[in-house]
Write a structure and sequence with these properties.
It is a single chain. Helix 2 runs antiparallel to helix 3. This protein is of the alpha+beta class. The strands form three sheets. Strands 5, 6, 7, 8, 11 and 12 form a six-stranded antiparallel sheet that branches. It has ten helices and twelve strands. Strand 3 and strand 4 form a beta hairpin.
């Protein structure tokens, strides 16, 4: 699903009379316009204005950047998740603002990326964004296969990714470049992992880079990664020492 990167530009950078870009403005990464055309209207965000040259105006980004310094942590949190949600809606993701999350289907794997906020936010100083990525294998979900009622759940990422991405961030008064960087990393390190899970060569490369500790740790939770691998890549599943004790600290546990 992820492809080339285009740009967001602020509404204030657009000449309302002729739709031309009047100055350089603040740039922000997004999908090419062709991705949006391929999606039904319901899948597109009604709060986005698209230009003919493929540049997209992000009203959500402009709203976030123009928030008062006295905005409540809830206002900051929702404004920020709106930016992420609208960005991925262009590629056909479903964004739900209530208990914010995006859902992206790629092949037989569906990603739900949930957004949470910390209990100890400080107005005008610190607003915590926490992300939890859950990957579900659709055939197993349909067959109601999985542990403890978690049908089809094969992987959950929270706290830190093995790539080094911290899934927790202070989002109070970030600039456009910081927001752009986070969304770019979500795309490359979270969304693209849907494909890694479905391609044996890519999954082997991931294991070569990071080892099997996290896979074994995933199996020790409610995730059914072993059953998934036995079903899809049996040779790879046979090569993993499932009874080994994972090294390093366990993943953080997040609750809504």
């Amino acid at each position: 699903m992820p492809g080339a990167v285009n740009s967001f530009v602020l509404m204030s950078d657009i000449d309302a009379d002729n739709g031309a870009r009047t100055r350089t403005g603040t740039w922000f990464p997004t999908r090419p316009q062709s991705h949006a055309r391929d999606q039904p209207p319901a899948a597109r965000s009604q709060r986005l204005f698209r230009l003919e040259d493929g540049i997209t105006v992000s009203l959500a980004l402009e709203h976030y950047l123009n928030l008062s310094s006295h905005a409540s942590p809830k206002e900051v949190f929702l404004a920020y998740t709106d930016i992420i949600g609208e960005h991925f809606a262009l590629a056909g993701a479903k964004y739900v603002r209530s208990r914010p999350r995006i859902t992206i289907a790629d092949g037989d794997v569906e990603l739900e990326l949930g957004f949470w906020s910390g209990r100890f936010n400080l107005a005008e100083r610190h607003v915590q964004l926490e992300m939890v990525a859950s990957y579900v294998f659709e055939p197993m979900r349909k067959e109601k296969l999985g542990k403890n009622g978690k049908h089809g759940l094969i992987w959950v990422s929270s706290g830190w990714l093995q790539t080094g991405l911290d899934l927790r961030a202070n989002i109070y008064r970030q600039d456009a470049a910081q927001v752009a960087d986070l969304i770019s990393r979500i795309d490359k390190e979270i969304v693209l992992f849907c494909r890694t899970l479905q391609r044996e060569q890519q999954l082997r490369a991931h294991i070569d880079a990071f080892g099997t500790d996290e896979i074994v740790r995933q199996e020790s939770t409610n995730c059914s990664i072993r059953a998934y691998l036995v079903r899809t890549f049996p040779q790879l599943a046979a090569e993993i020492a499932w009874n080994a004790t994972p090294r390093g600290p366990a993943r953080d546990r997040r609750t809504r």
